[in-house]
Each structure stands twice: as structure tokens, then as C-alpha cells.
Automatic annotation (TrEMBL):
Active site per database record: 38, 86 (proton acceptor)
Name of the protein described by the UniProt record: Isoprenyl transferase
Function: Catalyzes the condensation of isopentenyl diphosphate (IPP) with allylic pyrophosphates generating different type of terpenoids.
Entry's cofactor comment: Binds 2 magnesium ions per subunit.
Binding site for substrate: 39-43, 51, 55, 83-85, 87, 89, 206, 212-214
GO biological process terms held by the UniProt record: polyprenol biosynthetic process
Family: Belongs to the UPP synthase family.
Organism: Niallia taxi
Native organism taxonomy: Bacteria, Bacillati, Bacillota, Bacilli, Bacillales
Sequence positions that bind Mg(2+): 38, 225
GO MF, any single term: manganese ion binding
InterPro entries: UPP_synth-like (IPR001441), UPP_synth-like_CS (IPR018520), UPP_synth-like_sf (IPR036424)
Amino acid sequence: MFNKLRLWKTGTTTKTLQDQISNVKQQKIPEHVAIIMDGNGRWAKKRKLPRIAGHHEGMKCVKRITKMADELGIKVLTLYAFSTENWKRPKTEVDYIMSLPEQFLSTFLPELMEKNVRVTAIGYTEKLPEHTLKALDNAVEKTKNNTGLNLNFALNYGSRSEILQAVNNIVKDSQTGELDANGITEEVFSSYLMTGGLNDPDLLIRTSGEIRISNFMLWQLAYTELWFTDVLWPDFKEEHLIEAIEVFQNRQRRFGGV
Ligand code: IPE
Ligand code: IPE
Ligand code: MG
């Protein structure tokens, strides 16, 4: 167990993180949690550091939150790490972000294996630099038979383009007769998205105070519970994840019913 001794205040009582974990585990844990990890640049700016220092700190946060997701029994953790729009950033920043999967996996892969975590990715990963893709592919391959938490990175992901790609592939498969054009249900459409076999997220978290979706899982979020926090991603701690889940547990999901 990690962080056993860390203390913090909740209301009037002080609880250990471990107590908080066992409490939250008594109710339903969301199966699929997706996070828009935002605020790395502002975290760095506040400290008069270059933006890449924020991305480095953000990577440490990914480790912390992955471990906690595993401990809580979350089945899928999708992390939005790079969008199809993020290429607009200065080259030095993009280059640094593209070095993070290698940095992250070279130090963390043994622990992921030990914890039975399976690494997957969504997004146009074939357009990533070769060294980035190599590190990612290696992790995906090494962890492919693991049966624990699915750590799913959205890398060079954009939802509008994902939807268009699905439409184009559906048209193609209808023309070749592989798909019956009259039988395109929501399930069929979903299966053409990059999230293919995954259930839709139950909970979406966005850090850094921005209240928007930024081209993330537009189809899949139809009935997801949304939780926004002002905390910047590098400052996002285990207790914030627990807080989000507590809020989720107190929401009533109606899916259009009563
Ligand atoms: C999120 O942090 C990381 C990526 C989008 C890659 P930002 O880099 O967007 O941080 P802010 O929003 O500028 O603070
Ligand atoms: C969303 O953050 C993308 C990722 C976290 C990877 P951005 O910082 O790119 O989003 P905007 O520009 O604030 O909408
Ligand atoms: Mg941002």
C-alpha cells in the first residue's frame, strides 16, 4: 500500500488516504474513467519554469494516478495526452511531449507488468515520431496479455476526425458488401470508432478549470458524468481522484429514464 501515512482534512475529520480508499470502494467504482489532463503549461508558468517542466511533472502525475486507479479497481483509465490540434504548439514543446512516452515507459513498464496493467492507445498513433511509436508499441506488445487495469492513452487523438474515419470506413465496407448498409446501429457505429471494444466512459475528469471537451470522445461521452476541477494536472493527487469518484457515486444516472 502506498501513501498509507498521508493525512488530509475532509470536513471536520482527518482521514488517512487508506480509509478514504476503503470508503469509496464500498460503493460502485466507475468502470471507465477518462481524464483530460490539462494545465501543465500553467503549472510551469506559475513557477517561472519552461512549459516542458510542466509536462515532465505531468508525467509523474500519470504514474501516481495510474497506481491509484489500479488500487481502486477502475477497469479502464483513458488519458488524453495529445490531441490532433496540439501539433500547433512550438516544435520544441511538441518534441518534448513526444519524448514522454519513452521516459514514462522506460521507468514505469516493469511496475505496470508487476501490477498486471495492460497498455493500449487510441488516436492516429501511426503519425507519431518513430521513437515515440516504438516505445508505445513495445509497451502495448509486452502488456497485451495482462488482465488488470487497462491504461489507455489517447495520443494524437481527435474525435471529429475519428467519427469521420468511422463514416468513411462504414461507406467502404458497405460498398464491398462486408457490411449491410441498412443495419448500421449505434453498436455497429461504435465498433468503427477507435474505442472499438471499450465501454463508454462512466466518468470524465478535466483538470485546470477549463469547462470544455476539446474534441475528446464526442460520441462516447453522450451519457458520461462530467467532473471539472481547477486543480492543474501536475497538482492532481490521489485524493482528487477519490473526490471525483465520490461525486460520481452521489450522482443519479438516468440515461433518459426517470
Ligand atoms: C495539457 O497541458 C497537456 C497537453 C495538452 C499536451 P497544457 O500544456 O495544455 O497546459 P496549459 O493548458 O497550457 O496550462
Ligand atoms: C486538451 O487540452 C488536450 C489534452 C489534454 C491532450 P488543450 O490544452 O489542448 O485544450 P484547449 O486548447 O485548452 O481546448
Ligand atoms: Mg491546455
